[in-house]
């Protein structure tokens, strides 16, 4: 119950955190008590320093200090914008440049590689939040999705059309 309450407080405040199940490793469970000089769980650490247990976190929440000492989780929209702009040409696909994991991704990789333009990929199969969130964010329901300088170009069909019309290279170079 105490751990659940801690997670609820941290989540409510949008805190970026990870957790470790002390029941999964008795050596860690006992060792951390000695290391921290704190006999109970849960224990909250920020930047490697013990903040305290649930009672301390509740006090910090009540005083408003919790929001100042804990790192915030990046909002999905900000994360998507960051990923879209990670490289001048970004391709969101199933798999990677090296191993496409669907036919559409394989086709777009072949087209992209033929252009000689440098690009980065993001495997949407590795991150369900990005996979679903990007569909809404871009208002484009399918993958792959190609972005140039942070702007959606489109999916495989659009890329094929641009290639056939001779416009793909200028688009990838940000000339259109």
From TrEMBL:
InterPro entries: Glutaredoxin, GRX_PICOT-like, Monothiol_GRX-rel, Thioredoxin-like_sf. It comes from the Eukaryota. Residues 1-51, 89-153 form the Glutaredoxin domain. One of its GO terms (biological process) is intracellular iron ion homeostasis. GO terms for molecular function: iron-sulfur cluster binding; metal ion binding. Keywords: Iron, Iron-sulfur, Metal-binding. GO terms for cellular component: cytosol; nucleus. This is GLRX3 protein.
